[in-house]
Amino acid sequence: MKIEQTKDFELIAKLNKPVHDLHCSLYPKYFRKYNFEEVKELFKQLMKNRDFIFLIVKEKKEALGYAWIEIRHYHENVFNKEYQSIYVHQLSIVPSKKNKGFGTFLMEEIYRFAQQQAIDLVELDYWVDNKIAKEFYKKHNFIKYREFVYKQLNGVSPPPR
C-alpha cells in the first residue's frame, strides 16, 4: 500500500462515485444522482484551495480510494480561542477493497499529516444512517463532542433513521 497527494481531479471524481452513491441511497431527497462531469468540475475547482488536500491510496499502482482533507483555521474571537484542525470531508474506498485495511491506512496517514503540521485535532462528520462510517470512526476512537440537529418544516418527513 502507498499513499500520495494528488491534484488529479478526474481520478478523485471517479473514486468519489461509491461514497456519493451511498449518500444517494441513504438520502435520495437530498443527494442528486452522481454525474461524473459535474463532480469532476467541482473537484477541479476545489483543488485550487491550498487548504484542501487530496490523498489517494494505491496498491500496485492502482488507486483504490481517497481522502479529501482540509486544514481548518479557527480564529480567536470573543467566544473561542484560536486553533487548527484537520477536517476529513470524505473518505472512500472502492467497494471491492473495503474491509481490507485501506481506510485505516488512509486515516493513519491523515494522523501523520496532522502531526507534521503540529495540529493535534482531526475532525469529521458523517450521516447518521451511514452505519459503516459510524463503526469505522468508532474503531478509530473518534468521540462525539457536538451534535448537529434539524427540524423539518412544512410537514415533510425527515430523512430516514
UniProtKB/TrEMBL annotation:
The keyword Transferase applies. It comes from the Bacteria. One of its GO terms (molecular function) is acyltransferase activity, transferring groups other than amino-acyl groups. Residues 10-161 form the N-acetyltransferase domain. Keywords: Transferase. Pfam families: Acetyltransf_1. InterPro entries: Acyl_CoA_acyltransferase, GNAT_dom. This is GNAT family acetyltransferase. The lineage of its organism: Bacteria, Bacillati, Bacillota, Bacilli, Bacillales.
